[in-house]
Amino acid sequence: MSHWHRRQHTESAPQADKKPLRVGCVEYLNARPLWQGLGRRPDLFALQYDVPSRCSAWLHSGAVDLALLSSIEYTPRYRVVPGAAVTSTGPADSAAVFCRKPLTRARSVALDPSSRTSATLMRILCAEWFDIEPEFITMEPDLTVMLKRCDAALLIGDSAIHVDHARLGLSKFDLCNEWRGLTSLPFVFAFWTCRPEALTPLHLQAIRDARESGVAALDAIAGAHYPQDEALAAAGGAYLRKSVQYRFDEDCFASLQRFYAYASKLGIIEQAQPVRFYGT
To answer: According to CATH, what is the number of the domain 3-88+187-265?
Structure first.
């Protein structure tokens, strides 16, 4: 056997003494196309699920080896897996602020604590786009309670998707639409992130395969997310096709750099983060 064939065999064969990689998966519908396929490889991955802030905390603490990391949580000590992310050119529907009065008159905004990235985006848009300086109050994602306390309320993920704002007499501002108005760029919510040297070529290929199979089966994924409700499943499939993209291209990279620059300007992070990809 040639050296090349020996090397290929070594990189492709599972190692019996290796434990599955611990993976933090964002439980929202919009993230599911990236991780559902990983569940078919229990030899490579052990999945656990929660909101973005918890998945990020798992990676920071070492409780997982790989996470679908909320963008604001990234630091250069990690590596980004190329090619796959939760992004949107707008409207995203899963990150939106609701209010009864004009948003430009809001003096207080309730923030869903599930994602620091969306909360940071809201702060940036208030400062750079809406030209307001409201008080920000972190609250559990209950729209009724939030709007009793504040003039506007930010909801994240599935909670935001299913709000019938017209029936409730509310205005809705989609954060991705507003970000695109400010920057002419898509927005990057989250991406696969790991510690250096955590992945093998087998893991990388499985992550790529999971993305491809997920993007090709959006209706089936929505059905799995809402197994008891055909109407929600149909709406979920339409949402995935229309509102979310799963790529990490040059525009996404530029958007992420702009996001970090604004976050640094507001003092949310110390400085704009250089993004380092796995294998570099």
So the answer is: 3.40.190.10
